[in-house]
Amino acid sequence: MCVKVVCVGGGPAGLYLAILLKRQNPSHDITVHERNAEGSTYGWGVTYWRALLDRLHTYDPESARAIEESSVRWTQGVAHVRDQVTRQPGDAGHGIGRHRLLEILAERARALGVRLEFEDEITPENLPEADLVVAADGIHSTLRAHHADHFGAEATEGRNRYLWLGTTQVFDSFTFAFVETEHGWVWCYGYPYDAEHSTCVIECAPDTLAGLGLDAMGYADQLALLEKLFAAVLDGRPLIGGSAAAWPAFRTLTNRTWHHGNLVLLGDAAHTTHYSIGAGTTLALEDAMCLADALREHTALPQALAGYERRRRAELVSAQSAARLSAQWYENLPRYIGLPPHRMFALLGQRHSPLLPYVPPQLYYGLDKAAGRLEALRRFKRWLGPRAARALHARS
Question: Which of helix, strand or coil describes residue 375?
Answer without folding.
Answer: helix
